[in-house]
Amino acid sequence: MNLLKKIQSRRPEYTAPISVQPDKAANIAIHAGTQLVLTAALLAALVHPALATDLSYRLLSPSFGGTDAQPYTYAQYEYAQKQAAKTAKAQAIAQAQAALNSSAASSPSQGFANSIIAQLTSLVARNVALQIANATPGQAGTIAANGASITYVNADGQLNVSITTDAGTTSFSVPSIN
After folding, report:
1. Nearest-angstrom CA–CA distance, 150 and 163
2. What pLDDT score was predicted for residue 104?
3. What is the Cα 155 distance to its own chain's centre?
4. Residues 152, 140: contact at Cβ < 8 Å?
5. Most buried among 103, 104, 125, 162, by the most CB within 10 A?
6. What is d(CA 161, CA 144) in angstroms, rounded to the nearest whole number?
């Protein structure tokens, strides 16, 4: 029982709130200030003409009639990059496989023979190039070797050369040195 009395004695007593009546003078001042602000805002609106523009919205997505092609251009770019990467990877794999097959079948003596053949081919190509480059004005000729045909004509100060292989024809002209 003593404990209950101690708890009740510590509890604060309830007091009613004090109501304060605002005086009329303060209400009138607030009301007059509000009216003044509203009047000033109305005058400002009347003095300056209202500036407005038309609201417009431009559709960007071509799916909805828009004209912004940038996302589709970027998508095409990404697709082209992916295709180029796939093609390059496939070519690298094919070249590696071809190199592996050619080097696996060759022996040291075959490598030596291939080197001699490459050097002789280089010397023949050099002699052919010198013969074409040193052609005198009016001279023409055709050289054929290993399925390739080289035709040259030195005329009017120009050396015209046409090289035809199984892959196609390449033609070019250079000024004649003779």
Report:
1. 5
2. 54
3. 48
4. yes
5. 162
6. 13
Given a cut of 80, whether residue 154 has pLDDT beyond it is yes
The fraction of the chain above a pLDDT of 90, given in percent, is 15
Predicted confidence band at 96 (pLDDT cuts at 50, 70, 90)? confident
Alpha-carbon distance 156 to 63, whole Å?
A: 61
Q: For tokens 């009016």, what's the residue?
A: 138
- Which SS3 state, helix, strand or coil, does residue 175 take? strand
In this prediction the pTM is 0.38
Q: How many CA atoms lie within 13 A of 30 on its CB side?
A: 6
Specify the length of the chain in residues. Answer: 178
Sequence-separated (6 or more) residues with CB below 8 Å from residue 178: 134, 135, 136, 137, 154
